[in-house]
Amino acid sequence: MIRSLYIRVVLAFLVATTVGSDISFLMSTWIFEEQFNESAQVNLRNFGQDVVRIYKTLPLREADLFVSEMKQLDSHYIRIYEETGQFKSYGKLNGHNPAPVTMEQVKKVLDGGVVQVTPKGIATVLLGLPLKTEMGTKAMFLEVIVPPSVIFWEWIFVISSLITGSLLILVASIFLVRPIKKLTEATKRIAAGDFNVKLNIKQTSELGTLARSFEDMMHDLKQLEQMRREFVTNVSHEVQSPLTSISGYAQALKNVDLADHERSRYLDIIIAEADRMSKMSDSLLKLSLLESQSQQLQLGTFNLDEQIRRVIVALQPQWSARNIRFELDLQPVKVTADHDQLNQVWTNIIGNSIKFSEDGGMIDVSIRQDIKKRDRPNIRPRHGYFLRRSEADLRAFFQSRSFPQP
Length: 406
Known about the structure:
- By secondary structure, this protein is of the alpha+beta class.
- Helix content is 58%, strand content 15%.
- It contains eleven helices and ten strands.
- The strands form three sheets. A five-stranded antiparallel sheet has the order 2-1-5-4-3, sandwiched between helices. The chain has a three-stranded mixed sheet with strand order 7-9-10, covered by helices on one side. A two-stranded antiparallel ribbon has the order 6-8.
- Helix 1 runs antiparallel to helix 2 and helix 1 packs antiparallel against helix 4.
- The two termini are 77 Å apart.
């Protein structure tokens, strides 16, 4: 199996050239065969008439000597027949098979007739002419002989053309294959995780289009990888929040002096946070469906203020350990939204507020109505650290489709 593209290109060139040459030769032969034969007949007839005049002008011996030394015998073969069928020949065959001559043809020429046949196709004409000498009429037959040197040089030309063309097409294939090799190397580097690949292919052909499409794909893959890393970071952050709550309340349960109702409340919080982690895991499995909007949100009506209070209580280990206080101004508001998704939004926002507040600080949490007549909480640390919602939080907030109830 031929795997090298260079060899395939050269072989394709050789096959195409050979087949094309053969087809062209056959087509030209078929179209111009009549013109070729007519031209060969005219040339051979002129030469034969010259020989006839020589024998008519000179004595037989001198004419034989003169004809035997003619330069045209390099490409012509002459046979002069007697009535008995014996003949003299002039010229060298050089491997050429002479056309057969029958006694009927000899007799026709001796009787003053002319014989002209094309036994082998193009430019191979056998011409018979009567030859009048002082010794009586003889039958002369002439035909064209292609010198071996001509055939040899034709083969040399064909082989040289094929070799030269193969070398040229090989050089051209190097420039053709070089962009493909660059694409192959770039593919290997991308597979290894390296997205900083520069192809530098400036061609405007199909390969250039392929290279630009490859660069676009590489850019998309780079963005996808960046999104994957950010996703892992965000997931780690999301998981850390309930784990911190569970760990804090589990430590508080070790207190032997803890009242039963407090112990029960702590256990409820731990169970709720564990349940939230379970739902978070389920949400991760449904992430692709959520992005394609093929998964519908689980809408329900609930108290927004109560949900925010529960989130603050769940995060108590984080803010109580740093003596952070909360000032709440939460008016009773009912909303229709996905409870779990929106709960994650408030957990992220309040968790970030705690994280970026100073120890002993205060965080204001209030619900206010904006211009669009939608109620939303306003959460702000007191010491100049204003909350900045992440893009993921805002997307989840707007996907929740929260609308206040009248």
